[in-house]
Amino acid sequence: MDVTTRHIKYQADCDPSFPAAIKSIPGCEKLDSCIQCGTCSGVCPMSIYMDMTPRRVMNLVRYGFKKEVMASNTIWLCSSCYACTVECPREIKVTDIMYALKQMAIREKAYPRRFRMVVLANEFYKMVRARGRVNEIHLVTRLNLLTNPLEMLKMARLGIELIRRGRFSLRPDAVKDPQRIREIMEYQGNGNGRKEVATK
Ligand code: SF4
Ligand code: SF4
């Protein structure tokens, strides 16, 4: 016999500052006008893998169910294809809201320990900042060491073969002037245009 489980949500469990924080982000103000039509979920190519549809995430965000949203895999599976944003009849920037939720989760460390997606993003960022270029084998090695060292053993043979065939280089590559890359990254991180990038 199938058993139906109902989860009751209580208003006291909501975080009233959560919707306000998301709606204060440019482009996310229109969230309250969501009519729950489900178009975003219907066009989302990743929704079949998500534990919560984008429509549901939008609704939980506007009512302050932060814990549920942060625990969902939806924000991490969003591939930023913008289909939902293009199709939304209320012009809600669903993709930007997904980005905002990801940034919030990273800032508050609300993701599983050794979560590969976040570790990968951090290591990628550090590598680009240091050298202006990414070396795939160094990136994959660091990712596996920090998340699942046993994975290294499984991938060792493939890695050696790729190096042997010249598909992976062990030599770290760098742009001529990594400092310029750092300046661009700081410019982006400091509020889009509030800081001048020194020009040569
Ligand atoms: S498509 Fe827009 S209006 Fe419809 S459920 Fe998604 S966010 Fe809400
Ligand atoms: S941007 Fe994200 S949520 Fe929107 S349709 Fe694409 S994958 Fe789905």
From TrEMBL:
The keyword Iron-sulfur applies. Residues 24-55 form the 4Fe-4S ferredoxin-type domain. This is CoB--CoM heterodisulfide reductase subunit C. Keywords: Iron, Iron-sulfur, Metal-binding. InterPro entries: 4Fe4S_Fe-S-bd, 4Fe4S_Fe_S_CS, HdrC_iron-sulfur_subunit, Helical_ferredxn. One of its GO terms (molecular function) is iron-sulfur cluster binding. Gene3D superfamilies: Alpha-helical ferredoxin. Pfam families: Fer4_8. GO terms for cellular component: plasma membrane.
